[in-house]
Amino acid sequence: MFQDFVFSDQTSFLSDAEFAAALGLLDCARDAVRRRGEAIQRDPERAAIWMPDEGWHPDSQPSFELDGSTKNAQTSYELLDQGDREIIAKMRLYGHSFTGYQLATLELAGKRPWLSRKLPENWDDVLRFLVGPPDRAVFDYVAVAGALPEELRASPPRKFGEIGWLIDGAIVNDDSYAYLERLCLMHENGLIDHLRERRAENGILRIVEIGGGFGGLAYQLMKLFGECVRYTIIDIPESLAFSSIYCSTLFPKLDNRFEQVGPVALPEAPGFSFVPNSIHHQLADADLPADLVVNTLSLSEMSDAQIHDYCKAASRIIGETGIFFEQNHQTGHRGPGDIPPLYLKNLKKCESRLLTDSFPARRGDANLWVNANYGANYGASYGANHGE
Q1: pTM of the shown model
Q2: What is d(CA 289, CA 326) in angstroms, rounded to the nearest whole number?
């Protein structure tokens, strides 16, 4: 079953053209940070919505550091922002703030110090000492993937230093299983089939992800739907630095755009739109509604004001015909379960027969929401089409 282990030197080739494009996207992220700062100077009250807060606040301390220093997601952005070719080429090893799993050490991020410096060039030699038997997530991946249609078996690309156990040609690690879990939930609860119907009707899907991380789910959904997607990621610029490089490099022939000013038009052409959160309210009404809005694991890392703002935005973006899929832990936060009476109506609490004990304990409950203004009729239609 386990064919091999894939190390980062095997998956980190970056051509001169890809490196140059990545540097250009880092320039876009820097410019977005600057524009955000200038806008907040003009209207300081915007800082409560636009600036990273709660788990992403610059003063947050999600890791234990021997010297007591503060290390967090901003540390990771600053590392990427150096424009070092080797860091970009192995970007996946520096993205644990998005997944909670430190791929570079094959361990949950909370059990390791934050990666705040460039890894040694011989890091694969270190990994050869760290790699032991496959962990629980690998076995869970094998069990769930074997019960799903082949096209739903999430597999990361051999790019950006991805590492993991090789199983039936797929690189498998804790993050691989996380994305498999989301595809499984979407599949078992009728969402994948629904989106296929929408694609057949319209020729292209419109998907908006709030908080896209490094771009892992965006990659899986773009691949699953045959690159027939206009995929918009709304995020803080520091995170868009990662996702824009990841997605644009993996899908270089698509119409990919890093937006800087509004109004933001979403073209009909397949591709990615990377939208800083400071201008997400300026998505053009003519380009909506979206077929799907997605949020996984980040609403619960935001302030209540930010959750409120994004749920209101999700309601506008999905309009009368779209669905909002979210998976979050809500402890201590007014997440979607409290705000929807204003904006959203619960269409379905997701269930699974295939996932193991990790769902919902590890990553939280998953739900499908519709617009509160339209949910009654659309919910009945969705249920009729999907056996509810």
Answers
A1: 0.94
A2: 17
Q: By three-state DSSP, how is residue 350 classified?
A: coil
DSSP letters spanning 53-84: -GGGSTT---S--TT----SHHHHHHHHTT--
List helix spans (H) across the chain.
16-42, 47-50, 73-80, 85-89, 96-99, 123-130, 136-145, 174-188, 191-202, 216-224, 237-250, 304-318, 358-361, 375-385
SS3 375: helix
CB 256 within 8 A of CB 290: no
Distance from first CA to last CA of the chain, Å, rounded?
37
β-sheet bridge partners, residue 17: none
Q: 333 by DSSP, 3-state: which? A: coil
CATH of region 178-385, choose from 2.60.40.3080, 3.40.50.150, 3.30.43.10, 3.10.310.10: 3.40.50.150
**Per-state percent for the chain, helix, strand, coil, to nearest 5:** 45, 15, 40
Tokens of 318: 């999905």
The token pair that represents 280 in the structure block: 């997400």
Where are the chain's structural domains?
A: 8-129, 178-385
Q: What pLDDT tens digit does each residue of the chain (388 aa) get?
A: 678 999 999 999 999 999 999 999 999 999 999 999 999 999 999 999 999 998 899 999 999 899 999 999 999 999 999 999 999 999 999 999 999 999 999 999 999 999 999 999 999 999 999 998 998 999 999 999 999 999 999 999 999 999 999 999 999 999 999 999 999 999 999 999 999 999 999 999 999 999 999 999 999 999 999 999 999 999 999 999 999 999 999 999 999 999 999 899 999 999 999 999 999 999 988 888 999 999 998 888 888 889 889 999 999 999 999 999 999 876 555 555 555 447 888 899 999 999 977 788 888 889 999 987 765 444 445 555 555 5
